[in-house]
Design goal:
Helix content is about 30%, strand content about 30%. By secondary structure, it is of the alpha/beta class. The protein has a six-stranded mixed β-sheet. It binds inosinic acid and magnesium ion.
């Protein structure tokens, strides 16, 4: 388990690294919805604090931001198909993009997204909260990584199991009982609304 406190400390360190690396530039932070949203908010908060500590000039814009959807997972398995919505790569011309991701597992999502962005942006790096140590990895590595974790399905801090558990404060491994009980949770919510 990774507690909220551990995630907070590590995010602070990443924010520091990013602030140093991008001094004098205005990086464009691209949040991969929905999983990275909580990490993204934390990172933004920490980037503000880091900029204040380092005494950035008042007129400097520390970063700009936008959101993108990249979907590859069905339940606890990567589907192998990646759907990308919400990005107009041409608008990123000349920008220094940092893709903010919750977790890199096989790396296929990022491997599909990054070439599209790199066609236009001046630079593209990835900042991921988690990286899974798995034999299914395509070898893609992020420039900034919060934690390297063993090959288990994890939930919490924005990460879901079929839309459940994004709201957990800490990051945990979901057990077999949880997997069975919350299978098709997203669909059951939609049914209960109808
Ligand atoms: P990849 O394309 O296999 O690297 O998968 C990346 C995406 O799958 C992540 O952005 C997550 O949204 C999702 N994902 C992968 N592993 C997990 C996990 O353990 N828990 C929750 N979501 C995961
Ligand atoms: Mg994700």
């Amino acid at each position: 388990m990774l507690t909220a406190g551990m995630v907070c400390d590590r995010t602070n360190a990443l924010a520091h690294e990013i602030t140093e690396a991008y001094r004098g530039r205005t990086p464009h932070l691209l949040c991969v919805l929905k999983g990275a949203s909580i990490f993204y908010m934390k990172l933004i908060d920490m980037l503000h604090q880091a900029a204040a500590r380092l005494g950035s000039p008042a007129h400097a814009v520390p970063f700009t931001f936008d959101f993108i959807r990249v979907k590859s997972y069905e339940g606890t398995e990567s589907s192998g198909h990646v759907r990308i919505d919400g990005v107009e790569p041409a608008k990123l011309a000349g920008r220094h993009v940092i893709v903010v991701e919750d977790i890199i597992d096989t790396g296929l999502s990022m491997r599909s997204l990054l070439p599209m962005l790199r066609e236009h942006a001046a630079s593209v790096e990835v900042c991921t909260l988690l990286e899974k140590r798995t034999s299914r990895s395509c070898g893609l590595r992020a420039r900034y990584t919060g934690f390297s974790i063993p090959d288990h399905f994890v939930i919490g801090f924005g990460l879901d199991y079929d839309e459940a558990f994004r709201d957990l404060e800490h990051i945990c491994v979901i057990n077999h009982t949880g997997i069975e009980r919350f299978r098709d949770f997203g669909a059951s919510l939609a049914e209960s609304k109808a």
